[in-house]
Design goal:
The complex is a heterodimer of chains A (about 110) and B (about 110).
Chain A (H helix, E strand, L loop, with lengths): L3 E4 L2 E4 L4 E8 L5 E7 L6 E7 L2 E5 L6 E7 L2 E7 L7 E8 L7 E2 L3 E5 L1
Parallel strand pairs in A: 2-11
Antiparallel strand pairs in A: 1-3, 3-8, 4-5, 4-9, 5-6, 7-8, 9-10, 9-11
Chain B lengths: L3 E4 L2 E5 L4 E7 L6 E7 L5 E8 L4 E4 L2 E6 L4 E6 L8 E9 L4 E4 L3 E6 L1
Parallel strand pairs in B: 2-11
Antiparallel strand pairs in B: 1-3, 3-8, 4-5, 4-9, 6-7, 7-8, 9-10, 9-11
Classes of the chains: A mainly beta (about 110), B mainly beta (about 110).
Chain lengths: ~110, ~110
């Protein structure tokens, strides 16, 4: 247990569905991250929030919409996804920028 | 644009052997470098974090070195054990520590 939890752990959705991924950290950290891990590709940084403000958006399509209501919670809202969006979505947190990142177990997303 | 390469892609060694995993990066203006471990279907576990001003970090049987001028880092694992079997990921932090670029990883198998 790293202190970072993600729900759900598995999600199957159709291309017309709307769903949300949730991440919660119990470590008192101030920075939170969303990553995408596709098969046979390196881990890709999607979004970074620091003190609840988005500080990095790595050219992610608008069908992915992040939300950080407070420093402990991070959401990734999904709508009209494509099959190529199927991947493991990982959340991480760190005390401050540049510190060690602690990862959650991930959500395995399948888009049909 | 920062690119991170890890060699080899896969490695199989007998138990007890000392081994070295390699990571190279193209832009030496890094903020920090992290080594992670990932077990199948799971999130990442941070092993070592080296700040740009440091040359190496040690934790137990693990030692990571950083040579910014040559754009290289190595992870040395002493006396390998079957429990060390996992994928090892190198990640370079840029942009004040927020933007993290990952390598594709080295998949390690330690035979009993």
């Amino acid at each position: 247990e790293t202190g970072v939890t993600q729900t759900p752990r598995h999600l199957v959705m159709g291309m017309t569905n709307k769903k949300s991924l949730k991440c919660e950290q119990h470590l008192g950290h101030n920075a939170m991250y969303w990553y995408k891990q596709s098969a046979k590709k390196p881990l890709e940084l999607m979004f970074v929030y620091s003190l609840e403000e988005r500080v990095e958006n790595n050219s992610v399509p608008s069908r992915f919409s992040p939300e950080c209501p407070n420093s402990s919670h991070l959401f990734l809202h999904l709508h009209t996804l494509q099959p190529e969006d199927s991947a493991l979505y990982l959340c991480a947190s760190s005390p401050l920028r540049g510190d060690t990142q602690y990862f959650g177990p991930g959500t395995r997303l399948t888009v049909l | 644009k920062q690119e991170v390469t890890q060699i080899p892609a896969a490695l199989s060694v007998p138990e007890g052997e000392n081994l070295v995993l390699n990571c190279s990066f193209t832009d030496s203006a890094i903020y920090n470098l992290q080594w992670f471990r990932q077990d199948p279907g799971k999130g990442l576990t941070s092993l070592l974090l080296i700040q740009s001003s440091q040359r190496e970090q040690t934790s137990g049987r693990l030692n990571a070195s950083l040579d910014k001028s040559s754009g290289r880092s190595t992870l040395y694992i002493a006396a390998s054990q079957p429990g060390d079997s996992a994928t090892y990921l190198c990640a370079v932090g840029n942009t004040g520590g927020f933007k993290t670029i990952f390598g594709a990883g080295t998949r390690l198998f330690v035979k009993a």
